[in-house]
From TrEMBL:
SUPFAM superfamilies: Mss4-like (SSF51316). This is GefF protein. The keyword Metal-binding applies. It comes from Symbiodinium natans. The lineage of its organism: Eukaryota, Sar, Alveolata, Dinophyceae, Suessiales. Pfam families: GFA (PF04828). One of its GO terms (molecular function) is carbon-sulfur lyase activity. Keywords: Metal-binding, Zinc.
Length: 119
């Protein structure tokens, strides 16, 4: 399983942290059982939607639209705490260069260049 620690401005604003962590799951094998309805925020009409818990407001998922330039349009990106339940994942940092005031990625993780993740 892949975990992406995204440093883009949208993830920074949504979490109040220097990045948001997302775990990639196949959309066809993902079922969310939630006790509160999910709230949706459309990041960009052409690219993605963010889903938040309607009860507490925590990040739940991010889904890229099928017409998106994102390569994994059939993937749901769940908040990292779901991935930590499995204990089997690889981790990368993306969009580190989008804000030079943010701290660098940890030295044991190789950052991916922002141009590899255009949305």
């Amino acid at each position: 399983m892949q975990i992406s620690n995204c440093h883009c401005n949208a993830c920074h604003a949504a979490t109040g942290h220097s990045y948001a962590s997302w775990a990639a799951y196949p959309l066809s094998r993902t079922v969310l059982n939630v006790s509160s309805p999910l709230s949706v925020f459309r990041v960009n009409p052409a690219s993605a939607d963010r889903y938040f818990c309607g009860g507490c407001g925590c990040s739940v998922a991010m889904m890229y639209h099928l017409n998106s330039v994102w390569p994994e349009a059939h993937t749901v990106w769940l908040a990292r705490h779901f991935a930590e339940l499995t204990g089997n994942y690889d981790e990368v940092h993306i969009f580190n260069e989008s804000d030079p005031t943010r701290p660098p990625a940890p030295s044991d993780l190789e950052p991916l260049p922002a141009e590899d993740f255009r949305v």
